[in-house]
Input
Amino acid sequence: MTSTSIRLGVDIGGTFTDVVLEAAGVAHSTKVLTTYAAPEDAIIDGMRQVCTKAGVEPAQISQIIHGTTLATNALIERRGAKTALITTEGFRDVIEMRTESRFEQYDLNLVLPEPLLARQMRYTVSERVNSLGEVMIDLDMGQVRAVAERIKTAGFESVAVGLIHSYLNPAHERMVRDVLADVVPDVAVSISSEVSPQMREYERFNTVVANAYIKPLMASYLGRLEARLAEEGVTCRIFLMHSGGGIISLENAADFPVRLVESGPAGGAVFAAHIAAKYGLDKVLSFDMGGTTAKICLIKDQTPKTSRVFEVARTYRFKKGSGMPISIPVIDMVEIGAGGGSLAHVDAMRQIRVGPESAGSEPGPACYGRGGDRPAVTDADLILGKLDPDNFAGGTIALHPVASKAALMARVGETLDMDAVEAAFGVAEVVDENMANAARVHAVENGEDLSEYTMIAFGGAAPLHAGRLCEKLGIARCLVPPGAGVGSAIGFLRAPFSFEANRSVYMKLSDFDADLIRSLLADLQAEATGFVRTCDATAPILSAFKVYMRYTGQGWEIPIDLTEAQAMAPDATTFEALFEAEYAKLFGRTVTGMDIEITVWSVNATTPPQPVQALAPYDIVGAANAQGERQVFDPASGAFVASQIIVRDQMETGQTAQGPAVIVEDETTIIVPASRDAIRAGDGCLDITVKGDAP
Amino acid sequence: MNPPTTVAYQVMWNRLISIVEEQAQALVRTAFSTSVREAGDLSAGVYDTHGRMLAQAVTGTPGHVNAMADAVSHFIRRIGRENMFEGDVYITNDPWEGTGHLHDVTMVTPSFHNGTLNGFFACTAHVVDVGGRGFGADAHSVYEEGIYLPIMKFAERGTVDETLVRIVRGNVREPDQLIGDIYALASCNEIGHRRLTDMMAEFALDDLDGIATFILENSRRATLERINALPKASADGEMTVDGFDTPITLKARVTVEQDRIVTDFTGTSGVDKKGINCPMVYTKAYACYALKVAIAPEIPNNAASLAPFVVTAPEGTIVNAVHPAPVALRHIVGHFVPDVVFDAFDKIVPGVVPAEGAGCLCNFQMSVRPTGATGRRAEVLTFNSGGSGARPEVDGLNATAFPSGVMTMPIEATEHAGPVIVWRKELRPGSGGAGKTRGGLGQYMDVSAMPGHEFDLQAMFDRGDHPARGRRGGLPGGATQIGQDDGTPMRVKGKQFVAEGRVVQMAFPGGAGYGDPAERDPMLVRRDLARGYISADDAAEVYGLSADDIAEVQATVARGEDV
Output
């Protein structure tokens, strides 16, 4: 992208649609309320606003990058198309039987989430492929035709095809698709061997069903959006952010809409990764905390960690297993029910619990004075002095400490014989501990030591809690970037064109077949590159190779990165050494005498990352002027401490704020704990470090 | 340093729970046996120096709950504190001092901090093979059920006992898997230990006494509040199930007293000749689970929250089998314990507990071998579930484990584990017992060996002659059925030969209904008909749906719409 290009990033979130326009290196942003009935309306509105701010016409925009929660919401709210599934005879109920387990062991009245498609929408055909990919029973074409006719009669709009072991041999799924194309040419068809060619039928079938379910809706929305933008004079191409942290063409997005799920949070991770690049940081923990949830992501070597499966639409207190698994390349994030609106209560063990239930924006935390009588995290933050009741959200919402105090006493303090401050301290500590635990577990699962990490905090509530979280996690440095309120939309503008192709093919190292590997990886590379090529006809395309390996007999694989040389001239000894090094790092020791196998192969094709200008060095120029001081509770010492108040906009590059301090701005408040100091860096980031550690 | 504040203790308790969950996750990710890695049949916990359990991961199986709580004190007694060193790891699969059968390997690691013993980490996992006759009910004593590892050191001061490893390897069918699992268990304790050490440093703790007291006192108080809110009363429950050759009757008397609930199994059938007997520790776990889930579901498991649940049974009953009774399939009786406890509890507090369900998991193991020169041998174990019993206000769960909480394995994973084919695994319409709320549906499963192989099917089913009974007018669930595709009948339990080319066809039981079917919401009857959970005949005859309504539902389905 040249510096003369004008680019627009649009993130449709649950409440707000964020729009950012970057022209000549300057960003202009706005937030407008999401318009559910016609989401494109909010985009047009936002686009006009930022175009006016920047003094450009829509026709001058050279690229639009869009991410949206619409796909996620359609799955959560069950607003998809009339969809049928065609599957192998004997396996009609895979998506309904799930794992045959209860995700909550101690609830006698547990109700499992309904599958996306009720049983009468699931058809079976006789056929069977075995675990070697061989056909054991031929596809019964007469049955396929009969099913296609029934689909026609019933008027289904979309069909998912998911057959057993199709990730090894997609022939039957393709034959079913051909028949459907013949009998019901207008019906959208998704086949599991294309959408998610991975072993484990429940995840794969659920993914292809989800794709089929939202396909007509997303295709129609994207078509409307394209038309509306054209009416506004937009002539450039429109691209979509996908869950893996890259961008794909509008056409590919319409074919594989399930890849758009969680694209907003993915943009946030890309945003953090870009800052990591600017600061030359190889180990970053991105921490995004909003009103209802907190999201945590590991960013290594300026690349967010990715995963192959995740869960959407959790129905039961964000509990693992209560949603539906989607197996697609995705930025690996932990999301927990911890936000400013998360509500606190005391349980039977007299333990304070916070979240996942949230006060939302109506009635909101008790301090909003809109009738909320239960204490939220924001109430605790207010009582602890972290928020100024008269200057919240740029002074647009007056906060009521009396209401916070009453709610905290009624729901926490009186039960535990604590005063309001101690109750608030307890609530804040519990929510911080919940987030710290989630981060620790995530780090351990990835074999990482967080004490070597730098945190990048964004989202409305993150800077209030980041300091304490760093103390708990032993993290020495935290960056709070400017523009954190529209971080995801900014992230879209930093993302490369990318597409990850992967496939399950089993190979033991004892049966290592270098030729097969070369051809498999070359196929995947061609597939992934093809998708990227549709976005950019000329840019160089880089390939990242990854294999998932385990000891034969284990059930869970670990990802192993390969260099291009290792991928193109594969040898078993190198693969073994790479695996054992990673395994030892994750689990402490290797297992001797066991065969090792490769289960999944993956190639991520991507355009080169945008060149990042390293941050220019700056000098520390002294302390920023304080606007006064207030008492802020310091959890490390368990007491209030006098903290200076500093206005972020008035801080100049190199100016410092010595903790304890509160740095205020319209979108959020940054708490600098007593243990730390902050410096305003050259790019507007606040660089918060342990006292004495300043760079 | 001041003693930690209440807020700090709250944070530490949270942390300990997080640590054991992490410990369990590490085990899932490193284990070799499908029972652990796919099904989640494992447990992990942290203990103080007295062997009192402070926190336990909530994983697939309540069966490990009390067993784990008791296990560590056995290790302390057998090993002796004076013989415990940093870097040690202990092991056992003793059914009576571990978790009920030889297939559960329990490992305990002492946690030292600054050279002092601070506590213990323990974990348990169900491994696929321990030698002997294989996983099944055919043994006549525990000696035939596999290799026995008394409580002993697996590693001392960091050095693994290679003699032990060689003996283990020489006695089991899948030595790599088992040794892999043992290492996985050891490393999951290690992860717990490291995280505990970090926590103690962060809070400047010298020992766990303070936090242990905080956890145990709060848990005890909360549990006693619940128990003392119940009516002080006593009631009897009774249930008969298939057993192996002769039916088994389980009897439980539940008595609510001040500060405790006593469950006594006097009158229950005696031990069986076959390996379906249950050591007391496992009976205790499921009796305790049944009562906890009914009255104190959110109180975490630890020494104090479990203590008020007293469980007794005469020695020699099938729920208190003593050495050397065969116990490999102790889960069958164990999984029925909640239904019989519920039968009694429902008479003390009506309207809380469900009708009877499938009860025991519908597990089977296939011992596959080649019929010719090519092919391979394999042991393939699968976990499957029937329907759960209808609840007072909501239907039972279709093909979902209760009281066990383990997961099934993906059939694609099962087929990679050995030369077998699963031809069918889907819901079994009509098997949910009718009622105001309906029992959960069971499932069908058809399996065979790959061409060129034959196998022994080790069946571990029940409810063939004794389907789940309804409550308050609800009807029974469908019974278990099993046979081969050529009509050869098979038994619900025991090792049975299946020739190459033959398919074993199984129908797993449904849960029972709750309340009079005539009172069922007609909308739910129509929904069930549309989904094919019930037949048109049942809709008409059992639930009284009119012919017009049935025709309308069928037309809606043909239009591809939901009702």
Summary: Chain B touches chain A through 97 residues (CB under 8 Å). The first strand of chain B starts at residue 42 and ends at 47. The radius of gyration of chain B is 24 Å. Chain B has a mean pLDDT of 93.
